[in-house]
Amino acid sequence: MTPAIEIQSVSKNFGTLKALDDVSFRVEAGEFFALLGPNGAGKTTLISAMAGLSRQTSGHIRILGHDTISAAYLARKTLGVVPQELVFDPFLSVRESLRFQSGYFGLKHNDDWLDELLEKLGLSDKADTNMRALSGGMKRRVMVAQALVHRPPVIVLDEPTAGVDVELRQSLWAFVRELNQAGHTIVLTTHYLEEAEALCNRIAMLKKGKLIALEDKTKLLAHSNERDVSFKLSAALPDALLPLKVRDEGQRVVLRLPEIARIEQVLATLREARIEVREMTVIETDLESVFVHMMQGGKA
Ligand SMILES: Nc1ncnc2c1ncn2[C@@H]1O[C@H](COP(=O)(O)OP(=O)(O)OP(=O)(O)O)[C@@H](O)[C@H]1O
Question: Which PANTHER family does the UniProt entry name for this protein (predicted)?
């Protein structure tokens, strides 16, 4: 099957800065894929190149097989991008904005779909409101609707929930999930790692323009054998265990074990030192800790 997105050896230089450095990966059709990375990792640069808004210095990008340079229009028609910034004409109403956007794709009689989009995004009663009169959250919804006017099979959302309230985040995700279930491929960049963890099947991580991890979410989590264990002890931690200590939490001390099996050794050391364990809790690994660990240079 043709991949939804194929990124092949893509580099992008801004002067001497390598914003993307030989990045390659594929997103299969129907996936819900997360693209993570700290500020400046190159996520937006990659999305701009996918959307044909900027050109990569080298390499190829194909959207459902259409090259973003040699078949730019087809690639663009296949892709819907929800941008990070709110971009709109303040003098147009919501419906006019969507019609205008439809015009870019040569779509004239699109109103039934636009009505459906407005309804799904809770914008029906704002259809005739000028963009400038909308709240930030409402504008954000219009950005999503705009990205979907041409029913693109592949949808990229660049931090769509940055700065929006919990209710909107949840309704937005319910909608995006629905789109994914209807067969759309979704690529999401987010700083909210719990969102990536909850929504996506596969996760790619960029750091300083390089792809440093690409994994099924479950594998990524399993990769990290490390476990943090929180102890409440009858006395201070013995010196022998100090190298494992990551932090104090009130009366508790948190140790990081390279793998959970090391717990035997830790308990033996405590017994030898005649220190009693009053409470012990294993802290579940979440994507955030795996991510932070990898960003600090840890291996997948
Ligand atoms: N037009 C440009 N000219 C020069 N440098 C740029 C330009 N656009 C991006 N960069 C640089 O390229 C690098 C990657 O930026 P990019 O915006 O892609 O990162 P990002 O992962 O999207 O970050 P964020 O999470 O902050 O949006 C950064 O160092 C940025 O300063």
Answer: ABC TRANSPORTER ATP-BINDING PROTEIN
Is the same domain home to 168 and 234? no
Domain with 64 in it: 5-222
Structural domain contains residue 294: no
Ligand 1: atom nearest CA of 45 is: 18
pLDDT for residue 300:
43
Atom of ligand 1 nearest to the CA of 48: 18
Does 147 fall in a domain? Answer: yes
Task: Count CA atoms closer than 13 A to 283's CA, side-chain side.
Answer: 19
pLDDT at 218: 77
- Cα 40 to ligand 1 centre (Å): 5
Q: Residue 17 maps to which CATH number?
A: 3.40.50.300
In the chain, the number of structural domains is: 2
Give domain status of residue 129, yes or no. Answer: yes
What pLDDT shows up at residue 21?
Answer: 97
**What does pTM read for this prediction?**
0.79
Residue 156 has pLDDT above 50, yes or no: yes
The span from the CA of 179 to the CA of 145, in Å, is 12
CA-nearest residue for atom 8, ligand 1, is 45
CA-wise closest residue to 232 among 247, 253, 246: 253
Task: Specify the residue with its C-alpha closest to ligand 1, atom 6.
Answer: 14
CB atoms within 10 A of CB 245: 13
Question: What CATH number is attached to the domain comprising 248?
Answer: 3.30.70
CB 213 within 8 A of CB 205: yes
